Amino acid sequence: MKNKQKRLLLLGGAHYLRPVIREAHALGLYVITCDYLPDNSAHKLSDQYCNVSIVDKEAVLAAARELHIDGVMSFACDPGVVTAAYVAEQLGLPSVGSYEAVSILQNKGRFRAFLREHGFNVPWAKSYTDPAAALADASAFPWPMIVKPVDSAGSKGVSRVDSAGELRRAINHALDYSLSGAFIVEQFIPQQGYSSDTDCFSVDGRLVYCSFDEQRFDSGAENPYTPAAYAWPSTMPAPIQDELRAELQRLITLLGLGTSVYNIETRMGADGKAYIMEVSPRGGGNRLSEVLELATGVKLVQNAVRAAVGLPVDAMEDPVYQGHWAEIILHSDRTGRFHALNIDPAAASMVAEIDLWVIPGEMVERFSGANKAIGTLVMNFPDRQTLERYMSDDSWYHIAVEEEVAARAPALV
User: Fold this and answer.
1) What percent of the chain has pLDDT over 90?
2) d(CA 74, CA 89)
3) Which SS3 state, helix, strand or coil, does residue 14 take?
């Protein structure tokens, strides 16, 4: 009897799912994409589309039963991570861990509380649903603070607040992006060097692939907390990287996690301590797993797909970087019609990949969050000095909007 074709349910439909669908098809899987936006680009590549909101876990569960799926995942799509864990648990499908464990990771308030309870380095933080309660507590906050939704990603709804007078505006901004109507007020932890935001992988509860990068920001963007570029390998001190790796392994063990790709944010604070800021059991946005495959040769996307349907994953070990790599998140500093991406010919030999998500004449918006990016530019530099030269002065590429070259953005820092 011919083996039944495995069916994979992917939550979401944005362009970040394109490599996931390609890998799934290469493995012979039947792919179903699911969200409430039928015009999303990934639906054109999948075998079937299911029109259900991915934040409605009961509706997704009902659809999953009807579709007779063999696996479910939410890759580079934060709103679907908890739903995927719920559906997997209810149907006995492969999953990184329990619904409860994933819920802790995905709720910033619960995650901070878990870290504190188990002795991790953690900023002072408190979650709220009532703005008045936060305002009443303001005199006790260790300023400056970061205010953000407990359940959003892509830096949406995030503000730095330096005094009580700025708090109400920041709370309202956070609530605009919160699915649950909750927000967190958290001590701002200044970093030494660059913070890290990159992808890692565990197999059967063991952290087998742990990467660190340099997360860079555009200080002139509408939202200066949205990552604008990444560089590998990280220059974070080796002892701090070792400590963070050990603490991430401890976290995985405490939560009883198994096999999964993760998007992980860490940093070395100005106080010299190692901080785990975010851990989400999904591939990161901004094509991080894809760029890591270019830089290290490890197939994180394929292994994530394998894990989702219970197939054995390929052997992995900590990354060895094949040169010096950077990913630039292409974005506009103005709202208008995209015209062209222009790159200095002197940089052409170092361009590893261009991935544009817009076409000439299409409207683009100012960079207020990760969802306003218009593409990525992946660079492979011959040495660290060249990487720093190109990353500190971005005059070698221009994004032309409304048929004129947009003003050059401030240097990535």
Assistant:
1) 90
2) 14
3) coil
Residue 171 near residue 130, CB atoms below 8 Å: no
Same-domain status, 235 and 181: no
Higher pLDDT, 368 or 49: 49
Full strand arrangement of the beta sheet holding 404-405? 363-364, 336-343, 397-401, 404-405
CA distances from 114 to 202, 251, 307 (A): 20, 10, 26
Which domain, by its residues, includes 35? 7-93
pLDDT tens track for 246-304: 999 999 999 999 999 999 999 999 999 999 999 999 999 999 999 999 999 999 999 99
Query: How high is the pLDDT of residue 79?
Result: 93
Residues 223 and 305 in one domain: yes
C-alpha pair distances (Å), 246 with each of 65, 94, 210, 253, 396: 39, 25, 10, 11, 40
Cβ neighbours of residue 93 under 8 Å, at least 6 residues apart? Answer: 69, 70, 71, 72, 87, 310
Q: Does the predicted model carry a pTM greater than 0.85? A: yes
170 pLDDT more than 60: yes
- φ/ψ of 271, rounded to 5, equals -85, 5
- DSSP of 153-222: -TTTT-EEE-SGGGHHHHHHHHHTT-SSS-EEEEE---BSS--EEEEEEEETTEEEE----EEEEBTTSS
Report the pLDDT value the prediction gives residue 154, as an integer from 0 to 100. 66
Closest CA to 145 of 105, 184, 111, 109: 184
Query: How much is the average pLDDT of 192-199?
Result: 97
Looking at the structure of the chain, the number of domains it has is: 3
204 and 316, same domain (yes or no): yes
Q: Which of 158, 264, 152, 254 is nearest to 215 (CA)?
A: 264
